[in-house]
Write a structure and sequence with these properties.
GO terms for molecular function: hydrolase activity. This is Alpha/beta hydrolase. InterPro entries: AB_hydrolase (IPR050471), AB_hydrolase_1 (IPR000073), AB_hydrolase_fold (IPR029058). It comes from Streptomyces levis. The chain is an alpha/beta fold and about 270 residues long. The chain has one domain: Rossmann fold (3-Layer(aba) Sandwich). Helix content is about 40%, strand content about 20%. β3, α1 and β4 form a beta-alpha-beta unit. α2 packs across α3, α4 crosses α5 and α4 crosses α6. The longest helix is centred in the middle third of the chain and has 26 residues. It starts with a strand and ends with a helix.
Length: about 270
């Protein structure tokens, strides 16, 4: 197992598979790097170097009391990239990880980055405001915090259903996928998981997106119940200068089955291009 220690003393776990141009994966909340395993294996088997870390407070990384905020997440990613001396990298972020990628570029630029992929990503802003009327009301995020605090195990189990669209009529429900989601989620510390809710929901990434000056694939399911597409991918594609928007019809937030295969094909084509 590979680990490094950040400048504030937090130990970060990461996987490092294959050789070649680096593809760096940032995971969603409240998961960890394992959620990217199929994509990491895919790119490593096709001549790339796959790197995926557990965000602080999540998975096998340290669970500090302080630093559970988007700026620090982005700085952790920067320190990982610098510690491995990565250049010409493709950054891939899902959900909260998409916010992490955007904030990384906003704070650290694209000197080490060649391309970006934002999948089901939270930018530019999830929260409903006067300027963002298609966002999600704050009460929904207050409810998430209350559920995490009261009985996070039950909440994560129930969340897995809408996360993967298993609550839709005719969906092929995988008990194994739901159990994996629950297991990954339970590895997140309560403090880090709780703090992260405000970070993925209330952080405004508009300025970060304006600083992305590399080719960017914005991929999103149009039946995403977690990060609705109208306030996220459709706006992001307008804000990023060199963005390609790919919409998966009927796809949920967490891609499974044919939806995941379609994204994998698009990911591989994009990083090869």
């Amino acid at each position: 197992m590979s680990r490094f220690t950040t400048s504030d003393g937090t130990e970060i776990y990461y996987k490092d598979w294959g050789e070649g141009r680096p593809v760096v994966f940032s995971h969603g909340w409240p998961l960890n790097a394992d959620a990217w395993d199929r994509q990491a294996r895919l790119v490593a088997e096709n001549g790339f170097r796959a790197i995926a870390h557990d965000r602080r407070g999540h998975g096998r990384s340290g669970q500090p009391w302080q630093g559970n905020n988007m700026d620090r997440y982005a700085d952790d990613l920067a320190e990982l990239i610098e510690s491995l001396n990565l250049d010409d990298a493709v950054l891939v972020g899902h959900s909260t990880g998409g916010g992490e990628v955007a904030r990384y570029i906003g704070r650290h630029g694209t000197g080490r980055v060649a391309k970006a992929v934002l999948l089901g990503a939270v930018p530019p802003l999830m929260l409903r405001t006067d300027d963002n009327p298609e966002g999600t009301p704050k009460e929904a995020f207050d409810g998430i915090r209350a559920a995490v605090e009261a009985d996070r195990s039950q909440f994560y189990w129930e969340l897995s259903e809408s996360f993967y669209g298993f609550n839709r009529p005719g969906a092929a429900v995988s008990e194994g996928v739901r159990r994996a989601f629950w297991m990954w989620s339970m590895q997140a510390g309560l403090k880090g998981a709780y703090d992260c809710v405000a970070q993925f929901s209330e952080t405004d990434f508009t300025e970060d997106l304006s600083r992305i000056d590399v080719p960017t694939l914005v991929a999103h399911g149009d039946d995403d119940q977690i990060v609705p597409i109208a306030a996220s991918a459709k706006r992001t594609a307008q804000l990023v200068k060199d963005a390609t928007l790919k919409v998966y019809e009927g796809a949920p937030h967490g891609l499974v089955g044919d939806f995941e295969k379609a994204f994998n094909d698009d990911l591989l084509a994009f990083i090869r291009g």
